[in-house]
Amino acid sequence: MSLKKIAELAGVSVSTASRVLNSASPTCASRETQDRIWEAARAIGYVPNEAARKLKKAAGTQTGRQTETRSVTIVMARVASLEADPFFYELFRSLEVELMRQSMVIGQILYAEESLAESPAETDGFIILGRCSRQLLERVSACSRNIVGIWRNSMDFDVDEVLCDGEKAAELAMGHLLALGHRRIAYIGDCSYESRYVGYCNTLFRNHISMDYSLIRPTDQTREQAEAAFRELLGQKTSGKADFSAVFCANDATAVRVLEILAKQKKKLRETISVISIDDIEESQNTKPFLTTIRVPRDEMAHMAVSLLLDRIARGHKEPVRIEFPCRIVQRESCYPCR
């Protein structure tokens, strides 16, 4: 009956609701349809495993009360909304699918640091997405000791962490460009204590390539700032004030906009500019040319985060656990040998 209710609330068929709730793939339905279905599922506290619900109810009956489904609070530490960043949107969706598989529900979604100005709703634990400050973690820790963070690099906090090293990802991307003969490589992305920027700089240093700060554009990694930054770089290149043959973007959202601009400026450029980035979001497979990027294993990271949280709730471990997933390059069509 719950699945029928979700389909009714979302205005879709039961088969469509079932397909979306059992898959993190962005291709199973339109983004708007998926959002409606997941919102309806959260609204009614849907848990798909009927057998698990019966076991919980039976266990609760033996102790004189009904055991409730576990509730998790998701804290989005880096973005103000899911729509603001495609990577975090897809990571959140992978996490939502995994929580549902484990008969858990998302009780609350909090955005950015100001979201914990007041005490959050009652919860069995927290999963934090994205690099957070110590102040934010202290506020979360005051509510629960069951905390798992999903971020790029270890924060050296006393909580469980699931990582995919941003510095290593950047070095992998830069190494690919260097192997193609590029030496003049521009950077667009966050430069403030950012591991991807560190990886960019370190790769240049190790290869005895001087830093050219005129090729570095700090941004908040949104498409709007990416466009302004890259148009400025292109202007310097066409006027002869700067020279580069490749661009390393800190995330795919930036790279997608860079490729769109390059497509429009193709006739004005004397050479083809290579573009590489990090994340491997769904949109990176639909660009022209297809985007070469570094894959961050979102599904695997979401699965491990939920597993760690369940084990922490069950008191299966007390010391903080740190699990790092490797990244890998996805070679497509946006990188070319330097001429």
Give your account of this protein's structure:
With 339 residues, the protein is α/β, with parallel strands linked by helices. Helix content is 41%, strand content 17%. The chain contains 11 helices and 12 strands. It has helices at residues 2-10, 14-21, 31-44, 50-62, 86-101, 134-141, 166-179, 195-206, 223-238, 252-264, 298-313; strands at 70-76, 104-111, 125-129, 147-151, 160-163, 185-189, 216-218, 246-249, 274-279, 292-295, 322-324, 328-330. The protein has a 6-stranded parallel β-sheet, with helices on one face. Strands 7-6-8-9-10-12 form a 6-stranded mixed β-sheet, sandwiched between helices. Helix 1 crosses helix 3, helix 7 packs across helix 8 and helix 9 (223-238) packs across helix 10 (252-264). Residues 51-55 and 57-67 have low confidence and may be disordered.
Total DSSP helices: 11
Main beta sheet strand tally, sense and closure: 6 strands, parallel
Order of helices and strands: HHHHEHEEHEEHEHEHEHEEHEE
What is the helix content?
Answer: 40-55%
> What would you report as the Rg, rounded to the nearest angstrom?
22 Å
N- to C-terminal distance: 62 Å
Shape: globular
Report the sheet-strand fraction: 15-25%
The tally of strands reads: 12
Query: What is the mean pLDDT?
Result: 86
> What spatial order of strands do you see in the largest sheet?
2-1-3-4-5-11
Structural class: alpha/beta
Uncertain stretches: 51-55, 57-67
Question: What is the strand and helix layout of this fold?
Answer:
Elements: H1 2-10, H2 14-21, H3 31-44, H4 50-62, E1 70-76, H5 86-101, E2 104-111, E3 125-129, H6 134-141, E4 147-151, E5 160-163, H7 166-179, E6 185-189, H8 195-206, E7 216-218, H9 223-238, E8 246-249, H10 252-264, E9 274-279, E10 292-295, H11 298-313, E11 322-324, E12 328-330
Parallel strand pairs: 1-2, 1-3, 3-4, 4-5, 5-11, 6-7, 6-8, 8-9, 9-10
Antiparallel strand pairs: 10-12
Helix pairs in contact: 1-2, 1-3, 5-11, 7-8, 9-10
